[in-house]
Amino acid sequence: MKILIISLIAWLLVFFPARADDALYVVVNAKNGIENLSHHEVVDIFMGRDRAFPDGNKVTVFDNSSDTETRALFYRQLVNRSLAQVSSYWARLQFSARVTQPREVDQRQALLELMNSTPSGITFVKSTELDPALKVVYKFDP
């Protein structure tokens, strides 16, 4: 039995290796002074609880909606909620006029241009979308 389990694990590792492409990254403009953020800080920024980076500078959140699957995975890893639950969360907050929902950007090139032109910008991307103009401040495990 032990040999069967070891063989099964070896087979899984050979045929289903962890892919670096699966990781999601939270990125800022490369000129931003922030070097890294904690998971808690990322949650507070993307869920509208903080309007500034930990250093006190203003933050501008861009919600990467260019790929629904990536966006769903981001919010699942961020706050363990579905996109419908996140939309409901924002609807409640906007009704009370307490915060402004992050701007959704549905095209990758437009998102990259906004990030390049906005020093206070923050968003999330897949590893295949990383760009030298972006600085990684947080990485989700795949």
Overview of this protein structure:
The chain contains 5 helices and 5 strands, in the order H-E-H-E-H-H-E-H-E-E. The radius of gyration is 18 Å and the shape is globular. It has helices at 2-15, 39-46, 68-79, 83-95, 108-117, and strands at residues 24-29, 60-64, 103-105, 121-126, 134-140. Helices cover 40% and strands 19% of the residues. Strands 3-2-4-1-5 form a 5-stranded mixed β-sheet, with helices on both faces. By secondary structure, the chain is α/β, with parallel strands linked by helices.
Features:
142 residues, five-stranded mixed β-sheet
Give a topology summary.
Blueprint: H1 2-15, E1 24-29, H2 39-46, E2 60-64, H3 68-79, H4 83-95, E3 103-105, H5 108-117, E4 121-126, E5 134-140
Parallel strand pairs: 2-3, 2-4
Antiparallel strand pairs: 1-4, 1-5
Shape: globular
Radius of gyration of CA atoms, rounded to a whole number: 18 Å
From the helix content, strand content and strand pairing, which structural class follows? alpha/beta
The count of helical stretches stands at: 5
Cα end-to-end separation? 30 Å
Helix content: 40-55%
Low-confidence stretches: 8-20
From the structure provided, what is the oligomeric state, counting identical versus distinct chains?
single chain
Proportion of β residues? 15-25%
One letter per element, helices H and strands E, the order comes to: HEHEHHEHEE
Biggest beta sheet attributes: 5 strands, mixed
What's the mean pLDDT score? 87
Say how many strands there are: 5
Strand order of the largest sheet: 3-2-4-1-5
